[in-house]
Design goal:
The chain has 217 residues and is mainly α. It has 2 domains: 57 residues, Orthogonal Bundle (Arc Repressor Mutant, subunit A), CATH 1.10.10; 150 residues, Tetracycline Repressor, domain 2, CATH 1.10.357.10. Helix content is 77%, strand content 0%. The protein is elongated, with a radius of gyration of 21 Å.
Length: 217
């Protein structure tokens, strides 16, 4: 009978092997792109055999999708604190948004190569994967809409089609991530970029009214 200690050691070894494969796959995909990468490249980098790969992943697409899921989970996690402590006024809402976006931006900056891979390669995998990307964008829109709806109910955000506004916010964010990771906004520091986007979201093009509301609270 296999002892519990032996089982634990086996599980730990499997976990480490899977982690090594994921780390190797990430480096290979970043270096060569999805379509030019092969499983043989991944296992060579990880120092394991192809049999080991297939005991952990069905194919190249599955390990790529796993990397994307892990990356997206880390991004979504940056907004967790906002749900725990709901803002009670427009100033708190803005500052909580800036804090969450700053955490997200720092994560993107620290994982710039993975972000570039995500932005560049996920659209080119296949048609089904493009649907996965739409679902990811919808997940971020759901988060934005959840907080906007709470603000509307609390009376410190104007009534609006929160579904349309949330999708618009995600569209702006997606575009800015693409521009930032490609180095198209070198003149802006990350904190300045976040505040500029947040000011647009909370104040729009208005000169006086929205700014006065925020500054008075």
């Amino acid at each position: 009978m296999i002892s519990e200690l032996r089982k634990k050691k086996d599980e730990d070894r499997k976990t480490q092997t899977r982690k090594a494969l994921l780390e190797a796959a990430q480096k290979i995909f970043i270096s060569k792109g999805y379509h030019q990468s092969n499983i043989s490249d991944i296992v060579a980098r990880a120092g394991v055999g192809q049999g080991t790969f297939y005991r952990n992943f069905k194919d190249k697409r599955e390990i790529f999708e796993t990397l994307v899921e892990m990356f997206i989970f880390d991004l979504i996690d940056k907004f967790a604190d906002m749900k725990v402590k709901q803002p009670t006024n427009i100033r708190e809402y803005r500052e909580a948004s800036i804090t969450a976006l700053s955490r997200l931006a720092r994560h993107i900056e620290e994982n710039r190569e993975m972000t570039r891979l995500f932005m560049r390669e996920t659209q080119a995998v296949d048609r089904n994967f493009q649907e996965t990307i739409k679902q990811i964008c919808s997940r971020f829109a759901e988060i934005a809409r959840y907080h906007l709806d709470n603000a509307i109910r609390a009376g410190f955000a104007r009534p609006c089609r929160s579904d349309i506004v949330a999708e618009s916010i995600v569209g702006i964010g997606w575009r800015m991530i693409d521009e930032w990771t490609n180095g198209s906004l070198p003149q802006l520091g990350i904190e300045e970029l976040i505040r500029e986007i947040s000011d647009f979201a909370f104040m729009g093009f208005g000169i006086v009214e929205a700014r006065e509301i925020i500054e008075k609270q």
